[in-house]
Amino acid sequence: MTENIVSKIEELLKTFEEGLEKIVKREKDLAEYSIELKKQLDLIGKEMIKEACELIDESLKENEERKKRYEVVRRDKRGLKTIFGYIEYERTYYKDKEGKGYVYLVDIVLGIERYQRIDNAVKGAIIERVVDMSYEKAAKEVLGEDRISRQSVMNILKGIDSKELDEIQHSKSVKGEKKVVKELYIEADEDHISLQNGKKEIAKLAYINTGYKEEKGVVIRKELKDLHYFSSVKEDADDFWAKVGKYIEENFEVEKIENIYLLGDGANWIKKGLEWIDGAEFVLDKFHLTKEIMKIAGGDRKLFNEILKALREKDREGFEALVKEKMEEVKEDELAKRRIKKGRRYILSHWDNIVLEAANVNIKGCSAEGHVSHVLAERMSSRPRGWSEDIAETMVKLLSLKYNGFELMNVYLEKIKAKKSERQEVKEIAKGIIKNGKRVRKGTEKWNNIPVIANGKVNQLRRALKSLISCSFYNAGIF
After folding, report:
1. Rounded CA separation 126/69 (Å)
2. Helical segments of 88-161, H only
3. H/E/C letters for each residue in 263-311?
4. Whole-prediction pTM value?
5. Tens digits of residue pLDDT in 362-379
């Protein structure tokens, strides 16, 4: 088995040295050189994965504990898509002597499910990319031309429980000491996504922060501190804000917070947060306020500034007079009248909240619209597509995890590993392999005799390869 790996490592070293020479001679550029190396590395990776599977299978077959409990039935081939490409390995099929059925022991040790055709590392890599690109592009980026179907990518997403993603965020966020802050800001907005049934649904987004980062008391750039996102399509407003409230209680010294501001456009689901965040005050954000002023003023810059001045000075009568003047100006234009009435109604319904923002120096502007665009809209609604509600829920929670600093591939692999349950006797056999690992190590002995590594000129690549091959599969973490 090792002969194939040996020959491919020799080819890699040859490609490495010949490629350097051609780059120096200007016969090849770095891009061409990288592509050639990638192909060689993938070939070596496939051979090493295949050999690892078959060495472990052979060790299981020779294991004394295995012989007591399982009898050999036959040898079969299995195909698996890995991050290096498609591989086939031979595995032994066993019958349980106690009548508990048939099993491929090596698959259990390797953590491969019965009908699994795609390695979990591939699935994790696709999850990491699919939050930024289409299903097809994500699969191609991970597997190249050996990519999987769009439906297969959808099935990977369907296999994720969105509630478990919340649990991951919660388990990581509550570690460490609680933060002490004077002001806490909760900003909220929504994205409108299309479902496969033709309906529209809102994707809720809220994020907590403690204001802008400063250097020596001065805001250098508008980067938020202690930023943490929450998002959902399926959760109702009560469940959503209960989760936000729980996060605040577990991560901040609540009794030491002097002011909590909830900033948004005044939607009912956003104001619902006031019932769950004790002591919070609602503030209408400037972005939506500006849009409503523009509905009234149209293209009249002078009127826009006069309305803004009236709001800042808490002059309700002055505001009403300006609206009335504009209504008289548009006369018979019914469309303009409806637009002005709508802007007036919106502003008056949030009058106290607008005044609060204008009068309070602690309240910064709300940037929720930009965050919705960056975190959700780029993937969820910027291009025509129809989501299933379940996958949309999973996707927005994956996006929150990503922007909260989680590595999605690790998140996926951790959840897969946590769900695995092995029969106790298989665990005992695996322990026996580890204790008696000489057979596994024996398969790697020839690697130290590769001439180009043993006798070639010492350089950084050879040092790395010698370091790699001097380690057994066991020490490399296969078990």
Report:
1. 38
2. 105-110, 120-130, 135-143, 150-158
3. EECCCHHHHCHHHHCCCEEEEECHHHHHHHHHHHHCCCHHHHHHHHHHH
4. 0.77
5. 566 667 778 888 899 989
